[in-house]
Design a protein that fits this description.
Blueprint (H helix, E strand, L loop, with lengths): L2 E5 L2 E3 L5 E8 L4 E10 L6 E6 L5 E3 L7 E6 L4 E6 L8 E11 L2 E6 L3 E5 L2
Parallel strand pairs: 2-11
Antiparallel strand pairs: 1-3, 3-8, 4-5, 4-9, 5-6, 7-8, 9-10, 9-11
Length: 119
Amino acid sequence: QVQLVESGGGSVQPGGSLRLSCAASGNILRINTMGWYRQAPGKQRELVATITRNGNTNYADSVKGRFTIARDNAKNTVYLQMTSLKPEDTAVYYCNADITVLLTTTTYWGQGTQVTVSS
């Protein structure tokens, strides 16, 4: 059984920073691309950032220059450093990962962590 467990969400004022973490556990052979998505109330889930196993990154235009995605392959963990936060960044943030167990690769999702940016 594979699990993704997120941590680090919370409330912050505009201009503040938060760091999200997501750790994968279970009978994992290999983790390929990892990413962060978010869903604001009344909106569809959207991509925030992704990172390949080799460290290639991709960001949504709305977070470029403010958010940084990183991963530690030894710890099966992905991070999202968020700076210069804006009220429009308020959402539930989900991590996801393409994980190979035995010979099958499946996309797994975390349970989500709330990020609220408000004065």
